[in-house]
Amino acid sequence: MQQPPPYSQQYFLPRRKQRVFDPGAMTRGDWWTVVAYILFFVLGGASLIGLIPGYFSAFDTQEQALFGINLILYTTFFIVAMVHCGAHFFESFKTMKYYPWAKWLMLPGGWLLTIFFSAIVTTLFGGPQVSANQEALQGMTTAVPLPMMFVVTAVFGPFVEEYLFRHLLIGKLSRKLNIWVCALISTIVFASIHFLNGGGIASITQILPYLMLGVLMSLAYILSGKSLAYAYLLHFINNAMALLMLYLVYPLLPTGV
Fold first, then answer.
1. Four-point Cα dihedral 49, 50, 53, 56, nearest 10
2. DSSP 124
3. What percent of the chain has pLDDT over 70?
4. Backbone angles phi, psi at 55, to 5 degrees
5. CA-CA distance, 114 to 213, in Å (whole number)?
6. DSSP codes, 236-255
7. What radius of gyration, in Å, describes the C-alpha atoms of the chain?
8. Are residues 220 and 17 in contact, defined by beta-carbon separation less than 8 angstroms?
9. Which tens digits make up the pLDDT trace of 57-111?
């Protein structure tokens, strides 16, 4: 049996090289999911759900009805995405075997970094401005219980978006294009999608948080060896913290803050 090296020599052993989790090539199911996402989220097909007779009257408020549409769509897309990449997703959790301390610390650190950088830029450009997407989310907090909002916004939503914007737009598209070009495309599309059907962008302070998150997710995905799981964990923490702030902290602030 081979003996391990002396303790004094273990510090000089080479580190294990980061494993790359090959996402494979685009499948027919991937393409159909992309087309469906464009139809429902980009071209406004989600509004068709509201045309179902009696749909809006089944809810007490319009915010609850709009949340119901999001619940239906994100639950459906979550299941579809999990069918397409579930095995790859769970396999990519093994990225935590490589440089684990750095990766575990980056999970809360990445969120704090985006908050810090966004605060600096917001101050430089004249104070915070809330996007239409953020206003809609804040409106729902008064009508939808936290557990239900948490499932859709922190669990299902990030998985769907990481599957589309990182797993497909970076992981699989990088078979055809330079991976950093793919990262740029992913970041721009990811930030832009949050302003569709929302009146556009009025200020850099509105789009900045989404650009920062897109950059963070893209870097995390690439540097973790195309780990869909790691990018998802970062996205999950960001959305979860944002929700907890809206539900638990924001109501305690003085009116007008």
1. 130
2. H
3. 84
4. -65, -55
5. 7
6. HHHHHHHHHIIIIIGGGSPT
7. 20
8. no
9. 888 888 899 999 999 999 999 999 999 999 999 999 999 999 999 999 999 998 8
Q: What is the pTM of this model?
A: 0.87
5, pLDDT greater than 80: no
Closest by alpha carbon to 214, among 250, 255, 182?
182
* Token pair for 7: 């303790």
Mean of the per-residue pLDDT values for the chain? Answer: 85
The answer to whether the beta carbons of residues 158 and 235 sit under 8 Å apart is: yes
- Joined tokens for residue 230: 């790691």
| Integer Cα distance of 198 and 191 in angstroms | 13
75 is written with which tokens? 């639950």
Amino acid found at 99: Y
The phi-psi region of residue 44 (left if phi > 0; otherwise alpha if psi is between -120 and 50; otherwise beta) is left
